[in-house]
Amino acid sequence: MHARPVEQAGADAGERDGSTSSEREKTAQPRWENRRLREDVEILKRATAFYAKEAR
């Protein structure tokens, strides 16, 4: 869930509770990378199955 700009600015300044922009960025990057890697693994599985079937 994303904070509204005013709330986010308050969190960044330490005036409000919540994650700062840099904290949000740090947690979003691994999630994005994890999703990308899962997609890559799925593509490789399909390619492996395709080539295994072709080799027969």
Number of helices: 2
Which secondary-structure class do the elements indicate? mainly alpha
> What's the total number of strands?
0
- Please, how many domains? 1
Strand content: under 5%
Helix content: over 70%
Q: How many strands, what sense, and barrel or not for the largest sheet?
A: none
Radius of gyration: 20 Å
Distance between the termini: 49 Å
Shape: rod-shaped
Q: Whole-number average pLDDT? A: 83
Low-confidence stretches: none
**What's the SSE pattern?**
HH
What does this structure look like?
It is a single chain. The protein is mainly α and 56 residues long. The protein has two helices and no strands. It has helices at 5-13, 21-55. The longest helix has 35 residues, at 21-55.
Kindly list the characteristics that best describe this protein.
single chain, 56 residues, mainly alpha, 79% helix, 0% strand, rod-shaped
